[in-house]
Amino acid sequence: MPAVTETIETVQSVAEGGYKWGFETDIEMEFAPKGLNEDIVRFISKKKNEPGWLLEWRLKAFAIWQKMEEPDWAAVNYPRIDYQDAYYYAAPVQKAKPKSLDEVDPELLKTYAKLGIPLKEQAILAGVEGAGESPSDAAEGGRMPIAIDAVFDSVSVATTFKDRLEKEGIIFCAISEAVQNHPELVRQYLGSVVPQADNFFAALNCAVFTDGSFVYIPKGVKCPMELSTYFRINAKSTGQFERTLIIADEGSTVSYLEGCTAPMRDENQLHAAVVELVALDDASIKYSTVQNWYPGDAEGKGGIYNFVTKRAACRGKRSKVSWTQVETGSAITWKYPSCILQGDDSVGEFYSVAITNNRQQADTGTKMFHIGKNTRSTIISKGISAGFGQNTYRGLVRIGAKATGARNFTQCDSLLIGDQCGAHTVPYIENRCISAKVEHEATTSRIAEDQLFYCRQRGLSEEEAVGLIVNGFCREVLKELPMEFAVEAQKLLQISLEGSVG
Amino acid sequence: MNAMTSNAEAFLRRAEALATPAWVGALRRQGVEALARSGLPNRRVEAYRYTDLTPVARAEFGAAPKALARPELPAQRGRARMVFVDGVLRADLSTLPPRPLSDAAPLLGTVENSATAPVAALNAALAEDGMFLDIPAGENAGLIELVSIVTEGAGPIAFHPRHVVRLGEGASVTILETCEGPDGVGYLHNPVFEVVVAEGATCAHTRIQREGQGAYFLSSIHARIAAGGTYDNFTLNAGAKLARNEIHSALEGPKAACHMNGAQLVGQGQLADTTTFLHHAAPDCASRQTYKSVLTGNGRGVFQGKILVAQVAQRTDGYQMNQALLLSEDAEMDAKPQLEIYADDVKCSHGATIGALDENQLFYLRSRGIPEKAARAMLVQAFLTEAVDGVADETCRAALDEAVMGWWQGVAA
Fold it and tell me: Which residues contact A257 (CB under 8 A, 6 or more apart)?
């Protein structure tokens, strides 16, 4: 579809306006008592029927967390978080498996419908017996099927296409399920990329994580469909602490998508996730995120604090990890998806679009650790600030003494819309290897008058013109996204910038 | 005051023992307080992430020798010069009639950060002397030399000169500053400049830092530039075991300009750190920065450059480039360019590259019959020329070329 038509459509949908995922589902929930202490950690572990080693692991993390200080180096401001004033476990009440959609809690169905999940998948997500298992379900309307794991507050409610994936030997399930069914894999890899003591929010996550996705792709397997996790914070006063672990064994390939939304509330909610990726020899992982947590209202009231640790270990030779993120939501984003390039000839990529409008603040970027020989990394970051938004790129490229032939290219561009916002760039570049080559460039500018004029004289309104230009600005990143996500991301960019011009 | 917990205790004790005339009192107080608070920072402090100053805190410095040395001075290059020997201002060797620093009292410590940032605070606490260059409105003062020489017999002294340069409206001056000393002596040179550039005035400041190989060089330059004024700085950093060059410039009036260029030549056992902070505080200002580092042996180079564009500073044009050439396996370069922008109608960019000599370029030269050694020399020189070319004054440029050649011959030998 030509970009212009797309943009006009998008702008029309903007007119309807605002954050359309801001509803709240009234569903019967089960909560752990408010607050955080060892008992809560034990409660979560017991609820999940976890083995002793995992409880020990959680308690150790909790002990470490208690001794840690909340970091304050990021360019973000927020009132002190009271970690005792939140629920650390909230789950929709489990009932017997429904026989058909009619028996499913209509509220849950409504939620999925509002989120734009097709009915077939709704049935599967709601756990209807037999749904998603016949071949016809797999390719609805000729589009590529996507396997989805939906996480509702603290628990994974359902995973689709499980059987189909199992035939290939692929494990795609909730991490709590993996703990029960594949403890050896979980034990081997959990915390091996992001250890308990890594940072304040990661330690908190280690102690109280409730669910998330687990993916294992066996040797030589190319995952036949996109895997996707859908995160939703629904309950009030909850924090979401999901944990995702993806292991790509030798020679395997997987593409994984992550989407997130939350209801509109005037309180701030914490989301402290940890994502660990492990790529062995010749494996390739593509991890795409469209983050659309509730950003708060125009005055900066409410919204999600998105304090996330994401890291990939390219352990194998010629392994590759590619992070693509479109960050439009959250009141505050604190997120640095990173790559540890251990294997010789391994490749790390980071493509990012971050938008801050109104009172949003984003401090995001990446870290590339070049350890192996001939490791390569590419960083493309596009920051857009509007309204009173503050947008910071913070990144590190470190080339170790033994990383001969390593290569990095970094480009950070910032676009400012309006004179009350800010755009900041804080790259760290450390090179200890003579044969390595590191390049970094950064620019900051606003939308040029001549660009706007050109679009306006062809009949586009100012908002349409800005949309078109912003999409062009982000093109290098958006083209890295899988098809369905790219379209959604484009629309999100528009909505996020609503009201920022004129 | 928690002087006892500060690692700068020895310095603080020395400050206490100094005679404190009224004109320097306020500055010293500010310096002592700041130093007691921050000490000499280690790498856990973000601004010193790559450069640890605790070796300076741990080093022992002696008192300056009583007898005045009479070192041999190089030929005078400028219209006039001011000479410091072993940290002492020598009227007998200077051709510029000295003005007492006490005349600059109202200016002392008034230029952004010049009393409180750790390197400047150390100076504020201990400064006793310095050059006061006061150029009246409309006057072109020509080339003024500022020479600092540490003599063989001085031993591990520490000296903290505070230089004040004030330019009246439309005035101009070119300053050529040279710093030299003997190798193998752990002395400390801690100069601070406060530069006030009035409307339409121009100050061009070239520094050639060739302190001895065992020396510590902690410098901080603070400039305030009014509407239409210009401050140009070029720093050639070749000497000292540990050198930290901070330059803080504030563009305070419309159409002010600041150029900060430099080259770091870093060899075995050396650490050279250039840290710039450029504050665009008014609209329509322009700034340019080009820094080049060449690293040999196990030399470590650091570049940190921050451009802050305030909300009022619309139509800012800011550019920063920082390039490093690694010539040995053991060299290391760390860079942290940084943009912090609060205005929307701006054009700001920075670039950074770190790498070895380009094999293709080497091949090109060698295929034309140029021996490898000479080819390498040519490429390194070409790399540095780009930065040096920005220096307008020919005398300064010649001095820089000479210093670069001298260094390269030392490395190649």
Answer: A146, A226, A227, A228, A229, A288, A289, A290, A482, A485
ipTM value for the complex = 0.87
**Cross-chain CB nearest to B342 (options A422, A429, A430):** A422
Residue B162: partners with Cβ closer than 8 Å, 6 or more residues away: B27, B101, B108, B123, B124, B127, B129, B130, B191, B192, B194
B119 located within any domain: yes
Query: Is the CB of residue A442 less than 8 Å away from at least one CB of chain B?
Result: yes
- What is the torsional sign of CA A103, A108, A111, A117? negative
β-bridge mates for residue B309, sequence order: B280, B341
Q: What mean pLDDT is predicted for residues A345-360?
A: 93
> Are residues A408 and A490 both part of a single domain?
no
Domain count of chain A?
2
Minimum distance, in Å, between the CA of residue B11 and any CA atom of chain A: 30
Which of B302, B339, B360, B361 should be substituted to probe chain A, the one whose Cβ sees the most A Cβ atoms within 10 Å? B339
A434 with B328: Cβ contact below 8 A: yes
Give tens-digit pLDDT for B38-64. 999 999 999 999 999 999 999 999 877
Q: Please give the residue of chain A at the shortest CA–CA distance from B332.
A: A432
Both A187 and A316 in one domain: the answer is yes
Q: Which domain holds residue B267?
A: 9-356
Least CB–CB distance from B341: residue in A422, A431, A439: A422
Q: What are phi and psi of A119, to 5 degrees?
A: -60, -40
Instruction: Report pLDDT digits (tens) over A11-68.
Output: 334 333 456 666 666 666 677 778 889 999 999 899 889 999 999 999 999 999 999 9
Q: Stretch B388-404: mean pLDDT, rounded?
A: 93
Within 8 A of A411 by CB-CB distance, chain B residues are none
CB contact (8 A) between residue A429 and residue B335: yes
Handedness of CA B248, B200, B109, B157 (dihedral sign): positive
Sort B196 into a burial class: Cβ within 10 Å, 0-12 / 13-18 / 19+. buried
Cβ <8 Å between A428 and B344: no
* Domain assignment present for B382: no
Residue at B311 is within a domain: yes
Which pTM was predicted?
A: 0.87
Residue in chain A lying closest to B314 (CA): A419
Cα A228-A230-A235 angle, rounded to 5 deg? 165
Q: Do A422 and B324 touch (CB under 8 A)?
A: no
Residues of B in contact with A433 (CB under 8 A): 326
Same domain, A121 and A234: yes
Q: What is the pLDDT of residues B169-225, one digit of tens each?
A: 999 999 999 999 999 999 999 999 999 999 999 999 999 999 999 999 999 999 999
Q: What's the number of domains chain B is made of?
A: 1
Q: How far is CA A24 from the centre of its chain?
A: 21
Report the DSSP pairing between strands B242-251 and A29-31.
unpaired
Please tell me the distance from the alpha carbon of residue B325 to that of residue B320, in angstroms, as a whole number: 17
Joined together, the tokens standing for residue A463 give 């908002």
Same domain, A179 and A230: yes
Strand, helix or coil at A193? coil
What is the distance in angstroms between the CA of the first residue and the CA of the last residue of chain A?
Answer: 28
For residue A269, give Cα distances in angstroms to A233, A238, A256, B75, B177. Answer: 9, 7, 25, 70, 57
Closest chain A C-alpha to B132 CA, distance in angstroms: 37
Q: How far is A10 from chain B (nearest CA, A)?
A: 25
Q: Indicate which of A73, A370, A424, A444 best probes the interface with B, i.e. most B CBs within 10 Å of its own CB.
A: A444
Per DSSP, B153 falls in state G
Is the domain of A365 the same as that of A317? yes
Which residues in chain A touch residue B355, judged by CB atoms under 8 angstroms apart? 431, 436-438
**Residues of chain B contacting residue A368, judged by C-beta atoms under 8 Å apart:** none
Q: Containing domain of residue A343, as a range?
A: 26-69+91-97+111-137+147-447
